[in-house]
Amino acid sequence: MRDIIVTAVVFGALLLVFKHPHYGIYLWSWLSYMNPHKLAWGFATSIPFALMTAVVTLMAYLFSKEPKRLPWTPETILLLIFLGWVTFTTFFAFYPQLAWEQWDKVLKIQIMTLLTAMLITNRKRLEGLVWVIALSLAYYGVKGGIFTIVQGGVHHVQGPTSTFIAGNNEMGLALIMTVPLLRYLHLQAQNKLIRFGLAASMVLTGLAAIGTQSRGALLAAAAMGGLLWLKSRNKATTAVYIIAAIGLIAAIMPQEYWDRMNTIKTYQQDASAMGRINAWHTAFNLAKDRITGGGFETFQAPTFHRYAPDPGNVHDVHSIYFEVIGEHGFIGFGLFVLIGLMAWRTGSKVIRECRKDPERKWAADLAAMTQVSMVGFATGGAFLGLAYFDYYYHLVIILVLTYQIAVKNKWGTLKQG
Prior knowledge:
- It contains 16 helices and no strands.
- By secondary structure, it is mainly α.
- The protein has a domain at 1-66.
- The radius of gyration is 21 Å and the shape is globular.
- It starts with a helix and ends in a 10-residue tail after the last helix.
């Protein structure tokens, strides 16, 4: 039954995409973040809904009256250069078959990221995108938060299989990154019932992130919590939600959880942590030896035998930074970091320009909360191999579009819709 419902919803939505191409961005985001087809049990799990949506959206856009232009900003230019560089490094990859398969996934993500920048052209569309992304992941946040409460934090919160967020670590980071977007929506909501629902979702999503029992998620939450309070317009309300979440965590999570988190201090005795560090050394040594790195999916046994301090300890790299260093060298790493820094600078410009203007305060709120989310990614990502996670690139584009719409007013004459 689930398969039929998901398939009917997707195909019904695709009909709307032909008339309104930007709906395709919403549909693709829903499929990418919530992965509703992975919650089914039959034929729907194997249908390439996201690819179909991407093709239909691109075709509908090309034949529509939508402006055919990409905002040429430092971020979009760097994204294109980064895509070009990782394509170049793939030609020299250690494991060509694996590398080209991963390159294909990254290419699709970047095409849809840039298409987002071309189709989300006003505040209404931008807020629609934020709603879709936030609620798609808040589904797992609310569900996982309730699960954590009922189970007393004994079991890990997991994501849907065969997705970016399948594991507990990946799910934990995605949920932490979603809390600031929920806070933005909460700030903008006028309806009391909606505000209450969003407030509850924030607390439960934060609790679910802790319920994944991911040490990376805990570090991301710690780094993000203070910044969330500092960046929030209503600091008293934000403090209440943060304290409520901390209180729930303290009351619910069992001693086994705290014992696991304490291993952060004694990482030298943790085989998993030492395996990651060995992989990080491998990535650094590889980048020193080859300007192109080893290409996508380079962290295989032969690579460790050649570059690792401990050749027999083959371990996934588990770091966005060392993942890029090892796969695309220091040039790729520089481009990757520069994309984030330029996006942060753009967000800061929006905040300076808009925070004192009542008509544009929404933009300052969105920029601030997106920056908080990026801090979560930058912190938690230091311990997770999610360098090509589409969520991060969507955050970059959200900051670009907020600036284009609220500050530069590039599409100021375009009708809302």
